[in-house]
Amino acid sequence: MKVHEYQARQILADAGVPVPAGAMIESVEQAAATYKSVVQEAELGEGGLAVVKAQVHAGGRGKAGFVKLVRSPEEATEAARFMLSNRMVSVQTGDAGIEVCKLLIAAGVDIDKEFYLAVTTDRATRRNVMIASAEGGVEIEQVAAKNPDAILNQPIDPLIGLQPYEARRLAFELGFKGKQVGQAVRIMLAIATTFEKKDCTLAEINPLVLTPARDGYPDGQVLAIDAKFSFDDNALFRHKDIAAMFDASEENEGELRASRIGLAYIALDGNIGCLVNGAGLAMSTMDIIKHSGGEPANFLDVGGGASEEAVTEAFRIILSDPKVEGVLVNIFGGIMRCDVIAQAVVNAAQEVGFRVPLVVRLEGTNVKEGRRILSAAQSDLPTMQPAEDLADAARKIVDAVERERAGSSSPVAN
Ligand code: GDP
Ligand code: MN
Predict the structure, then answer these.
(1) What is the per-residue pLDDT across 200-226, written as a single tens digit (0 to 9) for each?
(2) Residues whose CB is under 5 A from ligand 2 (ion)?
């Protein structure tokens, strides 16, 4: 599960990491007053710097124009109006972009230097690792690709956690000096602890910034001005505070509906919807669709114990995806019974209708009953073809989709 930046900032602040004041808004009308209160809270005075930032589960906002520096209530309102009325297209969103419904208005800071700091799990060493770079900011992906030596790695001992001497060494390697070192170390220890305590899969501060010297901070101040946290879904039951931060509007509609009925469903970019039982068979089905020249529209494992209603809902989800131009059902009935699947196919056909080609391959428990149900409902299923085996099924659905495409683009077709 991901959270928004304004929520991640709260988690950081709770852990003792210095974060500039900020507040989340959901309408243009709130922008001016929020600008004033944030600037006042940070004691910046009139004309103080603030930053308006889109709150979406995607990065690359700065380059997309969805992080704007403002110096007045009017500029804050203008930035808010732009962000709430335009879709954000960044390197991480795809061409269609995403809708922005929430904004953060935060006190702005003057920046001397931007750093990158994160904790994640390194599968190779099977440990958590702190990753840091003195070349932080908006280009961290390029730094990793072109200049990997600029990225420092500090493995975290699973028993004793990140040690202060390890954090100090990292801070020196990043170039922090004087009082900056202690500030950076406190932040490193705080995110390493939070990562473990909250069962994170990623805790990232980018950029971690160093501000110019000012009163009270002769060496400048080390602050977090952007943060991203992801959490292990399987551990959410023990973090009610984190689970409460879930924002359904940021999730794929089909994936949300599937998770409500306990199905494993992942939306993909292709055009052939798949309904399969067992994760392994689902993977093989996707592979063989690709092998036959098609592209799967989703991964869907209905598992062993799904009810007829759950499988019917699975078909509704697949058929509501406008990208789906064909559906392949591949069931090897073990605990899952073929007649349950067949009945769900018929329910979906009667309720929504299969306007697209459908290929069904059934094998295993109650297969005879399953086939009987399907042939009895033949009139509801004009686009259905049975298949002998997996390879036959994949070929048939890819061919059927291609035929449909050729047919609908031909000028004589109606
Ligand atoms: P991202 O592009 O989605 O990662 O959004 P960030 O919050 O990291 O902002 C992108 C960039 O905007 C940062 O790397 C900074 O250079 C700049 N920026 C963000 N907040 C401030 C601020 O308070 N003051 C200044 N001067 N620059 C900021
Ligand atoms: Mn950032």
Answers:
(1) 999 999 999 999 999 889 999 999 999
(2) 206, 226
- Mark 205-230 as b/e (b = at least 16 C-beta within 10 Å): bbbbbbbeeeeeeebbbbbbbbbbbb
**Within its chain, how far is the Cα of 287 from the centroid?**
23
Q: How many CA atoms does the CB half-sphere of 194 hold within 13 Å?
A: 28
Average pLDDT of the chain is 93
Instruction: Indicate whether residue 61 lines ligand 1 (CB < 6 A).
Output: yes
Closest residue CA from atom 2 of ligand 1: 62
Angle between helix 279-291 and 390-409 (nearest 10): 50
DSSP label at 305?
T
**Tens of pLDDT, residues 354-391:** 889 999 999 999 999 999 999 999 999 999 999 989 99
54 CB less than 6 Å from ligand 1?
Answer: no
pLDDT band at 409 (very low <50, low <70, confident <90, very high): low
Tell me, using a 6 A CB cutoff, whether residue 137 lines ligand 1.
yes
- CB atoms under 10 Å from CB of 262, counted, come to 12
Task: Write down the pTM of the prediction.
Answer: 0.81
* Dihedral angle over CA of 363, 369, 372, 377, nearest 10: -100
The CA angle 350-307-359, to the nearest 5 degrees, is 50
